[in-house]
Amino acid sequence: MLVIDSGRPRNAPAAHAHGYLTRDGVAPAQLLAEGRAEVTGYGGEIVTGNVVAAERLDDGDFRVVLEDGPAVTAHRLLVTTGLVDELPDVPGVAERWGREVLHCPYCHGWEVRDQPVAVLATGPLSVHQALMWRQWSKDVTFFLHTAPEPGDEEYEQLAAREIAVVDGRVAGLEVTDDRLTGVTLEDGKVFPCRAAVVAPRFTARAGFLTTLGLEATEQKKDGHVIGSYVAADATGATAVPGVWVAGNVTNLTEQVVGAAGAGVRAGAALNEDLIAEETRRAVAARAGPGDRGRPYSSRTPWGTSRPQGAFPFAFGFAACRTGPPVAVTRTVRGLPRRRPAVRHGAFGPGHGLSRVLIMPSCFAWNVLYAWGPSSSGRV
Ligand SMILES: Cc1cc2nc3c(=O)[nH]c(=O)nc-3n(C[C@H](O)[C@H](O)[C@H](O)COP(=O)(O)OP(=O)(O)OC[C@H]3O[C@@H](n4cnc5c(N)ncnc54)[C@H](O)[C@@H]3O)c2cc1C
After folding, report:
1. Among candidate residues 118, 170, 127, the one with its CA nearest the CA of residue 151
2. Which of ligand 1's atoms lies nearest the C-alpha of 364?
3. Fold match between 2-84+202-358 and 88-199?
4. Strands 45-48 and 2-5, how do they pair?
Protein backbone atom coordinates (compact mmCIF):
# COMPACT_ATOMS: atom_id res chain seq x y z
CA MET A 1 0.00 0.00 0.00
CA LEU A 2 1.36 3.38 -0.92
CA VAL A 3 -0.02 6.71 0.24
CA ILE A 4 0.77 9.70 -1.94
CA ASP A 5 0.00 12.85 -0.02
CA SER A 6 1.06 16.41 -0.62
CA GLY A 7 0.57 16.87 3.11
CA ARG A 8 -1.68 19.93 3.20
CA PRO A 9 -5.03 18.98 4.75
CA ARG A 10 -7.78 21.53 4.38
CA ASN A 11 -7.89 22.41 8.07
CA ALA A 12 -4.13 22.98 8.29
CA PRO A 13 -4.58 26.73 8.95
CA ALA A 14 -6.55 25.95 12.13
CA ALA A 15 -4.72 25.42 15.40
CA HIS A 16 -7.17 22.77 16.62
CA ALA A 17 -9.72 20.33 15.20
CA HIS A 18 -13.06 19.77 16.86
CA GLY A 19 -15.99 17.46 16.38
CA TYR A 20 -14.06 14.21 16.43
CA LEU A 21 -15.00 12.48 19.64
CA THR A 22 -11.99 11.47 21.74
CA ARG A 23 -9.67 13.72 19.68
CA ASP A 24 -11.20 17.09 20.48
CA GLY A 25 -8.74 19.96 20.19
CA VAL A 26 -6.01 17.95 18.50
CA ALA A 27 -3.78 19.93 16.13
CA PRO A 28 -4.42 18.90 12.49
CA ALA A 29 -0.71 18.32 11.93
CA GLN A 30 -0.56 16.02 14.94
CA LEU A 31 -3.55 14.03 13.76
CA LEU A 32 -1.88 13.61 10.41
CA ALA A 33 1.44 12.57 11.95
CA GLU A 34 -0.24 9.98 14.16
CA GLY A 35 -2.22 8.60 11.26
CA ARG A 36 0.90 8.33 9.17
CA ALA A 37 2.69 6.47 11.95
CA GLU A 38 -0.20 4.00 12.18
CA VAL A 39 -0.14 3.36 8.43
CA THR A 40 3.61 2.80 8.29
CA GLY A 41 3.36 0.66 11.43
CA TYR A 42 1.32 -1.80 9.41
CA GLY A 43 3.69 -1.78 6.46
CA GLY A 44 2.08 0.95 4.39
CA GLU A 45 4.32 3.32 2.52
CA ILE A 46 3.81 7.07 2.46
CA VAL A 47 5.30 9.39 -0.09
CA THR A 48 5.08 13.15 -0.02
CA GLY A 49 4.13 14.20 -3.50
CA ASN A 50 1.55 15.83 -5.70
CA VAL A 51 -0.39 13.72 -8.18
CA VAL A 52 -0.87 15.55 -11.47
CA ALA A 53 -2.45 12.88 -13.68
CA ALA A 54 -3.98 9.42 -13.62
CA GLU A 55 -4.66 7.22 -16.59
CA ARG A 56 -5.93 3.74 -17.42
CA LEU A 57 -3.40 1.31 -18.85
CA ASP A 58 -4.15 -1.28 -21.50
CA ASP A 59 -4.19 -4.08 -18.93
CA GLY A 60 -6.83 -2.29 -16.86
CA ASP A 61 -4.47 -1.02 -14.18
CA PHE A 62 -3.94 2.67 -13.47
CA ARG A 63 -0.87 4.83 -13.87
CA VAL A 64 -0.54 7.73 -11.45
CA VAL A 65 1.91 10.51 -12.30
CA LEU A 66 3.55 12.70 -9.69
CA GLU A 67 4.52 16.31 -10.20
CA ASP A 68 8.25 15.71 -9.86
CA GLY A 69 8.34 12.93 -12.40
CA PRO A 70 7.89 9.42 -11.04
CA ALA A 71 4.83 7.33 -11.79
CA VAL A 72 3.32 4.32 -10.07
CA THR A 73 0.78 1.77 -11.21
CA ALA A 74 -2.17 0.42 -9.30
CA HIS A 75 -5.02 -2.00 -9.55
CA ARG A 76 -7.44 0.40 -7.86
CA LEU A 77 -7.53 4.09 -6.98
CA LEU A 78 -9.07 5.70 -3.96
CA VAL A 79 -8.98 9.46 -4.28
CA THR A 80 -9.24 11.56 -1.14
CA THR A 81 -7.72 14.83 -2.22
CA GLY A 82 -10.28 17.05 -0.52
CA LEU A 83 -11.27 20.47 -1.77
CA VAL A 84 -9.95 23.99 -2.16
CA ASP A 85 -11.66 26.77 -0.23
CA GLU A 86 -11.89 29.66 -2.69
CA LEU A 87 -12.09 32.68 -0.43
CA PRO A 88 -13.67 36.05 -1.23
CA ASP A 89 -11.16 38.57 -2.52
CA VAL A 90 -11.02 40.83 0.51
CA PRO A 91 -7.65 42.01 1.86
CA GLY A 92 -6.76 40.16 5.05
CA VAL A 93 -9.20 37.29 4.60
CA ALA A 94 -6.70 34.75 3.21
CA GLU A 95 -4.08 35.71 5.79
CA ARG A 96 -6.39 35.11 8.75
CA TRP A 97 -8.29 32.12 7.27
CA GLY A 98 -8.75 29.38 9.85
CA ARG A 99 -7.75 31.66 12.70
CA GLU A 100 -10.38 34.42 12.93
CA VAL A 101 -11.79 34.23 9.40
CA LEU A 102 -14.11 31.25 9.64
CA HIS A 103 -16.90 29.47 7.81
CA CYS A 104 -18.11 26.61 9.98
CA PRO A 105 -19.72 27.05 13.41
CA TYR A 106 -19.37 23.33 14.06
CA CYS A 107 -15.59 23.73 13.77
CA HIS A 108 -15.09 27.09 15.46
CA GLY A 109 -18.35 28.15 17.14
CA TRP A 110 -17.30 27.34 20.68
CA GLU A 111 -14.13 29.45 20.47
CA VAL A 112 -15.96 32.60 19.39
CA ARG A 113 -19.05 32.17 21.53
CA ASP A 114 -20.43 35.47 22.83
CA GLN A 115 -17.90 37.45 20.77
CA PRO A 116 -18.77 40.06 18.10
CA VAL A 117 -19.05 38.19 14.78
CA ALA A 118 -19.11 39.85 11.32
CA VAL A 119 -20.68 37.90 8.46
CA LEU A 120 -19.30 38.99 5.07
CA ALA A 121 -22.15 38.11 2.73
CA THR A 122 -21.21 36.98 -0.75
CA GLY A 123 -24.26 35.00 -1.85
CA PRO A 124 -27.87 34.14 -1.19
CA LEU A 125 -26.93 31.52 1.42
CA SER A 126 -25.16 34.05 3.64
CA VAL A 127 -28.37 34.84 5.52
CA HIS A 128 -28.56 31.22 6.59
CA GLN A 129 -24.93 31.39 7.64
CA ALA A 130 -25.65 34.45 9.80
CA LEU A 131 -28.53 32.59 11.47
CA MET A 132 -26.18 29.68 12.21
CA TRP A 133 -23.60 31.90 13.85
CA ARG A 134 -26.33 33.65 15.82
CA GLN A 135 -26.59 30.47 17.86
CA TRP A 136 -23.13 31.21 19.22
CA SER A 137 -23.28 34.96 19.74
CA LYS A 138 -25.92 37.62 20.29
CA ASP A 139 -23.59 40.10 18.58
CA VAL A 140 -23.73 39.17 14.90
CA THR A 141 -23.54 41.81 12.14
CA PHE A 142 -24.48 41.00 8.57
CA PHE A 143 -22.42 42.91 5.98
CA LEU A 144 -24.24 42.90 2.65
CA HIS A 145 -20.91 43.23 0.79
CA THR A 146 -21.42 41.49 -2.60
CA ALA A 147 -24.52 39.43 -1.76
CA PRO A 148 -27.89 40.11 -3.35
CA GLU A 149 -30.36 42.10 -1.29
CA PRO A 150 -32.12 39.74 1.16
CA GLY A 151 -35.81 39.15 0.58
CA ASP A 152 -38.54 40.43 2.91
CA GLU A 153 -38.77 37.14 4.75
CA GLU A 154 -35.01 37.05 5.25
CA TYR A 155 -34.98 40.62 6.55
CA GLU A 156 -37.71 39.55 8.94
CA GLN A 157 -35.59 36.62 10.14
CA LEU A 158 -32.50 38.78 10.61
CA ALA A 159 -34.49 41.36 12.55
CA ALA A 160 -36.18 38.73 14.69
CA ARG A 161 -32.76 37.33 15.62
CA GLU A 162 -31.43 40.86 16.27
CA ILE A 163 -28.78 40.61 13.56
CA ALA A 164 -27.75 44.08 12.39
CA VAL A 165 -27.51 44.56 8.62
CA VAL A 166 -24.82 46.87 7.19
CA ASP A 167 -24.96 48.04 3.60
CA GLY A 168 -21.82 48.64 1.49
CA ARG A 169 -18.76 46.68 0.43
CA VAL A 170 -16.14 45.48 2.86
CA ALA A 171 -12.69 46.89 2.00
CA GLY A 172 -10.59 44.92 4.46
CA LEU A 173 -10.00 43.63 7.95
CA GLU A 174 -8.58 45.53 10.89
CA VAL A 175 -5.82 43.70 12.76
CA THR A 176 -4.22 44.89 16.00
CA ASP A 177 -1.38 43.03 17.71
CA ASP A 178 -1.98 40.08 15.42
CA ARG A 179 -5.65 39.89 16.46
CA LEU A 180 -8.67 40.62 14.27
CA THR A 181 -10.34 43.71 15.69
CA GLY A 182 -12.71 44.92 13.02
CA VAL A 183 -14.13 45.11 9.52
CA THR A 184 -13.57 48.20 7.38
CA LEU A 185 -16.06 49.33 4.76
CA GLU A 186 -15.08 51.06 1.52
CA ASP A 187 -16.35 54.34 2.96
CA GLY A 188 -13.83 54.01 5.80
CA LYS A 189 -16.21 53.09 8.62
CA VAL A 190 -14.83 50.44 10.97
CA PHE A 191 -17.04 47.92 12.79
CA PRO A 192 -15.43 46.04 15.68
CA CYS A 193 -15.47 42.25 15.61
CA ARG A 194 -13.46 39.27 16.84
CA ALA A 195 -14.37 36.86 14.06
CA ALA A 196 -15.26 37.30 10.39
CA VAL A 197 -17.39 34.67 8.69
CA VAL A 198 -17.16 33.99 4.95
CA ALA A 199 -18.63 31.42 2.57
CA PRO A 200 -15.85 30.00 0.36
CA ARG A 201 -16.58 28.27 -2.90
CA PHE A 202 -15.75 24.59 -2.29
CA THR A 203 -13.86 23.29 -5.32
CA ALA A 204 -13.00 19.59 -5.46
CA ARG A 205 -9.32 18.87 -6.00
CA ALA A 206 -9.89 16.57 -8.91
CA GLY A 207 -8.23 18.09 -11.97
CA PHE A 208 -5.85 15.14 -12.28
CA LEU A 209 -8.81 12.80 -12.83
CA THR A 210 -9.90 14.32 -16.14
CA THR A 211 -7.53 11.99 -18.00
CA LEU A 212 -9.63 9.14 -16.59
CA GLY A 213 -12.82 10.78 -17.82
CA LEU A 214 -13.86 11.93 -14.36
CA GLU A 215 -14.94 15.55 -14.08
CA ALA A 216 -16.16 17.38 -11.01
CA THR A 217 -19.73 18.57 -11.27
CA GLU A 218 -21.37 21.60 -9.71
CA GLN A 219 -23.02 21.15 -6.33
CA LYS A 220 -26.03 23.24 -5.41
CA LYS A 221 -27.67 24.05 -2.10
CA ASP A 222 -31.15 25.51 -2.19
CA GLY A 223 -30.66 26.11 -5.90
CA HIS A 224 -27.36 27.99 -5.52
CA VAL A 225 -23.97 26.68 -6.59
CA ILE A 226 -21.70 26.18 -3.57
CA GLY A 227 -18.87 24.34 -5.31
CA SER A 228 -17.95 21.22 -7.24
CA TYR A 229 -17.58 17.55 -6.32
CA VAL A 230 -16.82 14.18 -7.87
CA ALA A 231 -20.03 12.16 -8.05
CA ALA A 232 -20.07 8.67 -6.53
CA ASP A 233 -22.46 6.11 -5.09
CA ALA A 234 -22.92 5.47 -1.36
CA THR A 235 -19.73 3.40 -1.21
CA GLY A 236 -17.66 6.04 -2.99
CA ALA A 237 -17.53 4.18 -6.31
CA THR A 238 -17.32 6.61 -9.23
CA ALA A 239 -18.52 6.23 -12.79
CA VAL A 240 -15.04 4.90 -13.69
CA PRO A 241 -14.65 1.26 -12.62
CA GLY A 242 -11.80 0.85 -10.17
CA VAL A 243 -11.85 4.45 -8.94
CA TRP A 244 -13.31 5.35 -5.54
CA VAL A 245 -13.56 8.72 -3.83
CA ALA A 246 -14.11 9.69 -0.20
CA GLY A 247 -14.12 12.81 1.95
CA ASN A 248 -14.47 16.40 0.78
CA VAL A 249 -13.59 15.60 -2.82
CA THR A 250 -17.03 14.01 -3.14
CA ASN A 251 -18.90 15.45 -0.15
CA LEU A 252 -18.22 19.14 0.30
CA THR A 253 -19.75 19.44 3.76
CA GLU A 254 -18.12 16.37 5.25
CA GLN A 255 -16.15 16.99 8.44
CA VAL A 256 -13.09 15.13 9.65
CA VAL A 257 -14.92 12.27 11.33
CA GLY A 258 -17.29 11.97 8.36
CA ALA A 259 -14.37 11.87 5.93
CA ALA A 260 -12.82 9.10 8.02
CA GLY A 261 -16.09 7.15 7.97
CA ALA A 262 -16.39 7.58 4.22
CA GLY A 263 -12.86 6.27 3.88
CA VAL A 264 -13.78 3.16 5.82
CA ARG A 265 -16.81 2.54 3.59
CA ALA A 266 -14.92 3.11 0.37
CA GLY A 267 -12.02 1.00 1.57
CA ALA A 268 -14.27 -1.93 2.34
CA ALA A 269 -16.05 -1.68 -1.02
CA LEU A 270 -12.76 -1.44 -2.82
CA ASN A 271 -11.40 -4.44 -1.03
CA GLU A 272 -14.52 -6.42 -1.93
CA ASP A 273 -13.73 -5.62 -5.53
CA LEU A 274 -10.16 -6.83 -5.13
CA ILE A 275 -11.32 -10.03 -3.48
CA ALA A 276 -13.69 -10.71 -6.37
CA GLU A 277 -10.95 -10.14 -8.92
CA GLU A 278 -8.44 -12.25 -7.08
CA THR A 279 -10.92 -15.07 -6.70
CA ARG A 280 -11.86 -14.91 -10.37
CA ARG A 281 -8.20 -15.06 -11.25
CA ALA A 282 -7.63 -18.02 -8.95
CA VAL A 283 -10.59 -19.93 -10.38
CA ALA A 284 -9.40 -19.26 -13.93
CA ALA A 285 -5.89 -20.41 -13.05
CA ARG A 286 -7.25 -23.67 -11.61
CA ALA A 287 -9.22 -24.25 -14.78
CA GLY A 288 -6.20 -24.20 -17.03
CA PRO A 289 -2.96 -22.56 -18.02
CA GLY A 290 -4.65 -20.08 -20.35
CA ASP A 291 -5.35 -17.36 -17.83
CA ARG A 292 -2.45 -16.53 -15.56
CA GLY A 293 -3.83 -13.10 -14.90
CA ARG A 294 -2.64 -9.86 -16.26
CA PRO A 295 0.96 -8.86 -15.61
CA TYR A 296 1.60 -6.85 -12.51
CA SER A 297 3.99 -3.96 -12.53
CA SER A 298 7.23 -4.49 -10.75
CA ARG A 299 8.85 -1.66 -8.82
CA THR A 300 8.04 1.66 -7.26
CA PRO A 301 10.27 4.61 -8.03
CA TRP A 302 11.07 4.59 -4.31
CA GLY A 303 13.09 1.46 -4.57
CA THR A 304 11.07 -1.12 -2.69
CA SER A 305 11.46 -4.56 -4.12
CA ARG A 306 7.78 -5.18 -3.60
CA PRO A 307 5.76 -5.36 -6.77
CA GLN A 308 3.45 -2.43 -6.80
CA GLY A 309 -0.04 -1.55 -7.63
CA ALA A 310 -1.14 1.91 -6.73
CA PHE A 311 -4.15 3.91 -5.75
CA PRO A 312 -4.93 6.83 -3.61
CA PHE A 313 -7.55 5.92 -1.06
CA ALA A 314 -9.45 7.55 1.68
CA PHE A 315 -8.16 7.44 5.14
CA GLY A 316 -9.86 4.98 7.41
CA PHE A 317 -8.49 1.75 6.18
CA ALA A 318 -5.23 0.31 5.17
CA ALA A 319 -4.65 -2.82 3.20
CA CYS A 320 -1.70 -4.93 4.13
CA ARG A 321 -0.26 -8.35 3.67
CA THR A 322 0.72 -10.63 6.47
CA GLY A 323 2.81 -13.69 6.99
CA PRO A 324 4.94 -15.72 4.62
CA PRO A 325 3.41 -17.65 1.75
CA VAL A 326 2.82 -21.32 2.54
CA ALA A 327 2.58 -23.80 -0.30
CA VAL A 328 0.36 -26.82 0.24
CA THR A 329 -0.25 -29.71 -2.09
CA ARG A 330 -3.26 -31.45 -0.60
CA THR A 331 -6.42 -32.00 -2.59
CA VAL A 332 -9.52 -29.97 -2.04
CA ARG A 333 -12.71 -32.09 -1.89
CA GLY A 334 -11.21 -34.66 -4.20
CA LEU A 335 -10.08 -32.21 -6.87
CA PRO A 336 -6.40 -32.64 -7.59
CA ARG A 337 -4.41 -29.43 -7.36
CA ARG A 338 -2.74 -28.47 -10.61
CA ARG A 339 -0.04 -26.56 -8.81
CA PRO A 340 0.93 -25.62 -5.28
CA ALA A 341 -1.63 -23.45 -3.62
CA VAL A 342 -1.25 -20.67 -1.14
CA ARG A 343 -2.89 -21.70 2.09
CA HIS A 344 -5.76 -19.51 3.16
CA GLY A 345 -4.68 -16.83 5.56
CA ALA A 346 -1.02 -16.85 4.70
CA PHE A 347 -0.35 -14.13 2.23
CA GLY A 348 3.19 -12.90 2.23
CA PRO A 349 4.81 -9.96 0.54
CA GLY A 350 4.28 -10.30 -3.14
CA HIS A 351 1.03 -12.21 -2.78
CA GLY A 352 -2.02 -10.48 -3.95
CA LEU A 353 -4.74 -11.04 -1.42
CA SER A 354 -4.94 -8.25 1.06
CA ARG A 355 -6.35 -7.85 4.49
CA VAL A 356 -8.24 -4.78 5.48
CA LEU A 357 -7.68 -2.99 8.72
CA ILE A 358 -10.29 -0.59 9.89
CA MET A 359 -8.49 2.23 11.60
CA PRO A 360 -10.24 4.71 13.86
CA SER A 361 -8.67 7.77 12.40
CA CYS A 362 -9.43 11.06 10.87
CA PHE A 363 -9.13 12.55 7.50
CA ALA A 364 -8.95 11.02 4.13
CA TRP A 365 -5.52 10.49 2.70
CA ASN A 366 -4.09 9.71 -0.63
CA VAL A 367 -3.00 6.16 -0.66
CA LEU A 368 -1.33 4.16 -3.31
CA TYR A 369 -2.07 0.55 -2.72
CA ALA A 370 0.72 -1.88 -3.41
CA TRP A 371 -0.66 -5.15 -4.58
CA GLY A 372 1.62 -7.50 -6.35
CA PRO A 373 1.95 -11.01 -7.70
CA SER A 374 3.38 -13.88 -5.82
CA SER A 375 6.86 -14.87 -6.83
CA SER A 376 5.78 -18.49 -6.85
CA GLY A 377 2.77 -20.62 -6.21
CA ARG A 378 0.10 -18.14 -7.12
CA VAL A 379 -3.27 -19.83 -7.31
C1 LIG B 1 -10.09 26.30 8.55
C2 LIG B 1 -10.82 25.00 8.68
C3 LIG B 1 -11.02 24.43 9.91
C4 LIG B 1 -11.69 23.23 10.03
N5 LIG B 1 -11.91 22.71 11.27
C6 LIG B 1 -12.54 21.52 11.38
C7 LIG B 1 -12.79 20.96 12.66
O8 LIG B 1 -12.47 21.55 13.69
N9 LIG B 1 -13.42 19.76 12.71
C10 LIG B 1 -13.82 19.08 11.58
O11 LIG B 1 -14.37 18.00 11.70
N12 LIG B 1 -13.60 19.61 10.35
C13 LIG B 1 -12.96 20.79 10.23
N14 LIG B 1 -12.74 21.31 8.99
C15 LIG B 1 -13.12 20.51 7.83
C16 LIG B 1 -12.00 19.48 7.56
O17 LIG B 1 -10.84 20.17 7.20
C18 LIG B 1 -12.42 18.53 6.45
O19 LIG B 1 -13.64 17.93 6.79
C20 LIG B 1 -11.40 17.41 6.25
O21 LIG B 1 -10.12 17.97 6.10
C22 LIG B 1 -11.78 16.58 5.05
O23 LIG B 1 -10.86 15.54 4.93
P24 LIG B 1 -10.36 15.02 3.49
O25 LIG B 1 -9.48 13.90 3.78
O26 LIG B 1 -11.50 14.84 2.59
O27 LIG B 1 -9.48 16.22 2.87
P28 LIG B 1 -8.15 16.85 3.44
O29 LIG B 1 -8.06 16.74 4.90
O30 LIG B 1 -8.08 18.22 2.85
O31 LIG B 1 -6.99 15.94 2.86
C32 LIG B 1 -6.68 15.94 1.50
C33 LIG B 1 -5.22 15.55 1.37
O34 LIG B 1 -4.94 15.30 0.01
C35 LIG B 1 -3.74 15.97 -0.34
N36 LIG B 1 -3.80 16.26 -1.77
C37 LIG B 1 -4.63 17.11 -2.42
N38 LIG B 1 -4.41 17.06 -3.74
C39 LIG B 1 -3.41 16.17 -3.91
C40 LIG B 1 -2.72 15.67 -5.05
N41 LIG B 1 -3.03 16.08 -6.28
N42 LIG B 1 -1.74 14.78 -4.88
C43 LIG B 1 -1.41 14.33 -3.62
N44 LIG B 1 -2.03 14.76 -2.52
C45 LIG B 1 -3.01 15.67 -2.66
C46 LIG B 1 -3.71 17.22 0.52
O47 LIG B 1 -2.39 17.72 0.68
C48 LIG B 1 -4.29 16.68 1.82
O49 LIG B 1 -3.26 16.16 2.65
C50 LIG B 1 -12.13 22.54 8.86
C51 LIG B 1 -11.93 23.13 7.61
C52 LIG B 1 -11.28 24.34 7.52
C53 LIG B 1 -11.08 24.95 6.16
Report:
1. 127
2. 25
3. yes
4. parallel
Check pLDDT > 90 for residue 300: no
State whether the beta carbon of 250 lies less than 6 angstroms from ligand 1. Answer: no
Which ligand 1 atom sits nearest the alpha carbon of residue 49?
43
Q: Is the CB of 208 under 6 A from ligand 1?
A: yes
82 in Cβ contact with 247 (< 8 Å): yes
- Is CATH 1.10.760.10 what the domain over 2-84+202-358 is classified as, yes or no? no
Structural fold of domain 88-199: FAD/NAD(P)-binding domain (3.50.50)
Instruction: Summarize pLDDT for 275-284 with one digit per residue, the tens.
Output: 999 999 999 9
Q: What is the DSSP letter of 15?
A: S
CA of 330 to the centre of ligand 1 (A): 50
**Residue ID of nearest Cα to ligand 1 atom 17:** 11
- How far, in Å, CA of 188 to CA of 204, rounded? 36
Residue nearest to atom 29 of ligand 1 (CA): 9
Domain locations along the chain: 2-84+202-358, 88-199
- pLDDT, one tens digit per residue, over 16-54 is 999 999 999 999 999 999 999 999 999 999 999 999 999
DSSP β-bridge partners for residue 83: 204
Distance between CA atoms of residues 292 and 306, nearest Å: 19
Answer yes or no: pTM beyond 0.85.
no
- Residue with the larger pLDDT of the pair 344 and 188: 188
